[in-house]
Amino acid sequence: MITPILPTYARFDLSFEKGDGAYLVTASGERYLDFGSGIAVNCLGHAHPHLVECLTDQASRLWHTSNLYNIPGQQKLAQRLTEATFADTVFFTNSGAEAMECSIKMARKYHAANGQPERYTLITFEGAFHGRTLATIAAGGQEKYLEGFGPAVEGFKQVPFGDLEAVREALDETTAGILIEPVQGEGGIRVFEPSFLKALRALCDEHGLLLVLDEVQCGVGRTGKLFAHEWAGITPDIMGIAKAIGGGFPLGACLATEDAACGMVAGSHGSTYGGNPLAMAVGNGVLDIVLGDGFLDNVRAMGLLLSQKLARIKDEHGDVIEEIRGEGLMIGIRPRVPNTDFVAALKDQHMLAVGAGENVVRILPPLISTEKEIDEAVEKIEAVCRTFRADMKQAASAGAAE
Q1: How far is the C-alpha of 148 from the C-alpha of 8, rounded, in Å?
Q2: pLDDT, tens digit, for every residue of 102-145?
Q3: What are the residues whose beta carbons fall under 8 Å from the beta carbon of 82, sequence distance 6 or more?
Q4: Per-residue pLDDT at 393
Q5: Distances (CA, A) of 323 to 218, 265, 335, 342
Q6: For residue 235, how many other CB atoms are within 10 A of its CB?
Q7: Nearest-CA neighbor of 99 among 88, 90, 109?
Q8: According to the model, what pLDDT value does residue 365 have?
């Protein structure tokens, strides 16, 4: 018999009653170090006092009006985002998938508005994840998400990760642009080299294409810059963001240059809830903190500290950990055991992490994490390594005895 909640998730038998900074607490009082951050969402941890204040103040005054009317918080947040980024304009959504849908539509509409409607195809990369809508699963191209949902939405060409020559070969008269995550999250914390992103920018400029970035997971401070593409010294034409910009409240956005957004006129796109007063209050609250003096410097410092400590663990437990990868506080551990087992073992240590492609364990701490919490996480990861190492030795001894 089907459950009242549609059974589309393989959940841990675990639930939480409250959160406090980098920790989640069960009804029985057990504390878990949350280094999954709700899959890179809770950038300021749980129950951050400034976000609580922003949300409760707005909730006491006004929740929803729809986009039939001006929403002052939208103007404020859009102004702050455009001042801090490449963008000239912003469309607000409720999720990352919606932000990417808007980005895809905008890239197609740009060429149609410029008299070339045949240019609608986006080049994407193997291992990508852009969301769960019909268009975004087609953009991601992963069979496990496409299976059973009928013909894939047309207009996407996938090429191997980091293969510039394959990108060139994929170009044709239908190409509208290139869509890429500067750091693949679901794909296994795979970081595109700055030189590759620069080459894509040059290719787009050469052929009149749009560079579309998906920074839903790697954006808003996660890598130590406000947005991950800044490490490469490039700017996109269109960018989808979400997750951390809402700090736990559903919020996404599509950012664009004035030129790229030229086709998005009144009636061309919309959202009933997108940019509602509650989301805008929280989004502005997040930027109050993330754009504050020294905040991103601390993210970079904590990211370096975590990477160095994990590198030591890899050196000492190379039989358990094959690779450490990532940028800032977006770290991937590639174990020599199934990542599901590693995540489960961390849970037994009262630490939360998230699985990803290529048998990777995602370590996504809140951006407010301190050295104390980094040290606690490292101790738990090392304890898991010792456990697996002991199991491996025991298995080897048993095999030799046979």
Answers
A1: 14
A2: 999 999 999 999 999 999 999 999 999 999 999 999 999 999 99
A3: 88, 89, 90, 255
A4: 76
A5: 20, 47, 7, 14
A6: 16
A7: 90
A8: 98
What is the value of pTM for the model shown?
A: 0.96
Res 325 pLDDT > 80 = yes
> How confident is the model over 141-164, as a mean pLDDT?
95
Q: Which residue blocks in 227-294 are alpha helix, DSSP H?
A: 277-290
- What does the alpha-carbon distance between residue 96 and residue 27 come to, in Å, rounded to a whole number? 30
Token pair in block for residue 140: 């991601």
Which tens digit of pLDDT belongs to each residue from 79-108? 999 999 999 999 999 999 999 999 999 999
Decide: helix, strand or coil at residue 206.
helix
Q: Which domains does the chain have, with CATH numbers?
A: 18-34+296-401 (3.90.1150.10), 49-290 (3.40.640.10)
Question: Which residues are bridge partners to 20 per DSSP?
Answer: 23
Exposed/middle/buried for 322, CB within 10 Å: 0-12, 13-18, 19+?
A: middle
> Which residue's structure tokens are 């087609």?
138
Q: Do 132 and 97 meet the contact criterion of CB atoms below 8 Å apart? A: yes
Q: 52 by DSSP, 3-state: which? A: helix
- DSSP code per residue over 299-361: HHHHHHHHHHHHHHHHHH-TTTEEEEEEETTEEEEEESS-HHHHHHHHHHTTEE-EEETTTEE
For the chain, give the mean pLDDT. Answer: 96
Torsion from C-alpha of 395, 396, 397, 402, nearest 10 degrees:
90
Q: Where are the beta strands (DSSP E) in 181-306?
A: 183-184, 190-191, 210-214, 238-241, 252-256
Which pLDDT score is estimated for 397? 67
